[in-house]
What does this fold into?
Amino acid sequence: MRDTSRLTVSAGLGLRTAALALVALTAFGCAAFSKTPLQRAQDREFDKILASKGLDTSEARRTPRNAEERVAEGDRLLKKGDAQRAVVAYFKAMDMDPEALDPRERIGFMQLANDLERSEAIFVGVIEEDPNRASAWRGLGFARLAMGELDDASDALRRAVELDPDSAGAQYGLASVMGLLGETESAVRHARLAQTLRPHDPAVANVLGVSLMLAGDLPAAEKALADAVRLAPEMYAYHNNLGLVLGKQERYREALLAFRRGGEDEQAALNNLGYCYFLNGRYDDAIAHYENALSEPGDRKIEVLRNINEALDARDRSLASPSP
It folds into this structure.
């Protein structure tokens, strides 16, 4: 688990398919469309007919009549977890109104999960047409963050925050970039702003925890990451980030338990624990845990061997250094 400060922040931001789907869901708001009293009355009558037949097909109540309604249909489907049908709805919206920016932007957020270059190109195109569209700057920042283009990601997310300071997504995205760039004070500040805006969001709690960890406030980081795990126990990256904070506090048993809950195999858990010992300067213990990891089945043997060599080099350097 080399360069874990980067890996844990990245994993926490959601550079896995499941987490990126969450970003796609939370990065934009669903449009609301008003109906006339006659339309609402017709809906009620239709609901009565469906109820009498024991059916609940509210989605079939009407066919979207324009691009805006198609986008709203896609948003509803995406919230239900039906990403495939949501994409179809967004493409139909584009067919209905090729100039509409909303469906293109929605597809850009969804492409964060599997095609970063396409996602980036979509957001750039949207911004060219509307330079003051905060959500597009936010999406561009996430795409460039995922691509490792930290300076460009910082610029995009700063612009998103300028245009919409009440966007929790832009704030925690900027916090993540600042942490990776080593600007930990700024990272914590933006993460706390995001938490104020979205206090019960596990992604925000995770980014706050990682930012605090990078800033050296381990007790506060532990609290934030424990909140993230409590709010989203299915997110493996949050468990691993919590394990790292526990390990840095030399609470190794608790750290190993967190790593085991991180959803990977025993080899990965022992490798991560070895890295905690490495960070704390306990190189012999790190090497021992890396060697234990090698004895476990898994596909990380090359990574573990690199970590062993790094720990051996660090131990040799520490032994060669004169005592203060």
